[in-house]
Write a structure and sequence with these properties.
Distance between the termini: 56 Å
Number of strands: 4
Largest sheet: 4 strands, mixed
CATH architecture: 3-Layer(aba) Sandwich
Oligomer: single chain
Shape: globular
Radius of gyration: 15 Å
Strand content: 5-15%
Order of helices and strands: HEHEEEHHH
Structural class: alpha+beta
Helix content: 25-40%
Number of domains: 1
CATH topology: Glutaredoxin
Number of helices: 5
Length: 122
């Protein structure tokens, strides 16, 4: 019981840098903005760079979605999706879906398909 007490006051937050030019990111971010009622996720455009963020830097064109936690740990692309879900209310249930075989593969395919479609349309 004593080990749980120090963690109760902590606010876990995450910063998401994203390129909103892709349909996957636009739709995903609309879902996150609607779902994030506690304000635990800060969404920044990929062109934005803030020196005050702990280890956070903007996503590059190769990284259309980048999540950075308070400790500076980074997740890119499809790997960021369950981490972002985990920080939403009841999102741990959605993040647990990534335990199922093939779920991450489908997410990666959607990200890659959306990214390649965006590059072809330029």
């Amino acid at each position: 019981m004593a080990s749980i007490q120090p963690n109760l006051g902590q606010k876990d937050s995450i910063t998401v840098f994203c390129n909103e030019n892709t349909a996957f990111n636009r739709n995903f971010l609309a879902l996150v903005k609607h779902w994030d009622r506690r304000g635990k996720i800060q969404i920044m455009p990929s062109s934005c760079s803030t020196a005050s963020e702990e280890g956070a830097q903007p996503a590059t064109i190769e990284e259309p979605l980048l999540a950075v936690d308070e400790n500076g740990v980074r997740w890119n692309g499809a790997e960021a999706v369950p981490i972002i879900f985990k920080n939403l209310p009841f999102g741990k249930l959605a993040a647990a879906m990534y335990i199922l075989p093939g779920t991450m593969w489908v997410t990666r395919q959607l990200c890659e398909m959306d990214s390649s479609h965006r590059q072809l349309s330029r």
